[in-house]
């Protein structure tokens, strides 16, 4: 496992295809598989091999907001043998806007990444804060300085008939509506 800087907060990550590493990541955070781990990617094209299909809405949002603070929930490719938690056949994907994170993701491939903190505690905005919470449970801490704004990503679920904003964060709902050219429901 590695702690890495992102454009939102520091994350704790591992190989998305190593089920044992993902379980260890969840244990280090103090949470269970009922809260699945998102996957970070280092390029737009990486998602083509991870999901069943990339809908037009997903492509439009990716072109507008990646890399950046937008996470997309899509149906994952059935051929993948990963275990990210109780995902019900979906995966949440994001491409962070941080040079250290992007370089790492391009070198190692998709990573299961969650905020670098113990469950219930504030997310770390520095490598030192992450190390205070996670200690020796993580072997590598990449220090990229203070992370970007402590604002979570906006999450848009594209698994249903219409886009659904699950959480508003770094990207405003109005921006999502503008890119898609229509109204978008917000979970509430």
UniProtKB/TrEMBL annotation:
InterPro entries assigned to the protein according to its UniProt record, in alphabetical order: DHBP_synth_RibB-like_a/b_dom (IPR017945), Sua5-like_dom (IPR006070), TC-AMP_synthase_SUA5 (IPR050156)
Top-level enzyme category: transferase
Superkingdom of this protein's organism: Bacteria
Keywords for this protein: ATP-binding, Cytoplasm, Nucleotide-binding, Nucleotidyltransferase, Transferase, tRNA processing
Signal peptide: none
Compartment annotation: Cytoplasm
Sequence ranges assigned to domain YrdC-like in this UniProt record: 1-171
GO terms of biological process kind: regulation of translational fidelity; tRNA processing
Keyword Transit peptide carried by entry: no
Coarse class of the protein's main subcellular location: cytoplasm
GO molecular function: ATP binding; double-stranded RNA binding; L-threonylcarbamoyladenylate synthase; tRNA binding
Cellular component, GO annotation: cytoplasm
Catalyzed reactions: L-threonine + hydrogencarbonate + ATP = L-threonylcarbamoyladenylate + diphosphate + H2O
Pfam annotation, one family: Sua5_yciO_yrdC
EC number: 2.7.7.87
Family: Belongs to the SUA5 family.
NCBIfam families cross-referenced by the UniProt entry: L-threonylcarbamoyladenylate synthase
Protein name: L-threonylcarbamoyladenylate synthase
């Amino acid at each position: 496992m590695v702690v890495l800087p992102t454009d939102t907060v520091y994350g704790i990550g591992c190989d998305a295809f190593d089920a044992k590493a993902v379980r260890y990541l969840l244990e280090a955070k103090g949470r269970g598989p009922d809260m699945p781990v998102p996957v970070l990617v280092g390029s737009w094209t990486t998602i083509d091999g991870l999901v069943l299909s990339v809908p037009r809405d997903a492509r439009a949002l990716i072109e507008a907001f990646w890399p950046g603070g937008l996470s997309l929930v899509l149906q994952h490719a059935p051929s993948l043998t990963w275990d990210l938690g109780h995902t019900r056949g979906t995966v949440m994907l994001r491409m962070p806007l941080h040079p250290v994170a992007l370089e790492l993701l391009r070198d190692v491939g998709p990573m299961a990444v969650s905020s670098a903190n113990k469950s219930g505690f504030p997310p770390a905005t520095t490598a030192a804060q992450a190390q205070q919470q996670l200690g020796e449970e993580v072997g590598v801490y990449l220090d990229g300085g203070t992370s970007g704004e402590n604002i979570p990503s906006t999450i848009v679920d594209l698994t249903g008939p219409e886009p659904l904003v699950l959480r508003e964060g770094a990207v405003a709902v109005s921006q999502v509506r503008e890119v898609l050219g229509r109204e978008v429901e917000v979970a509430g």
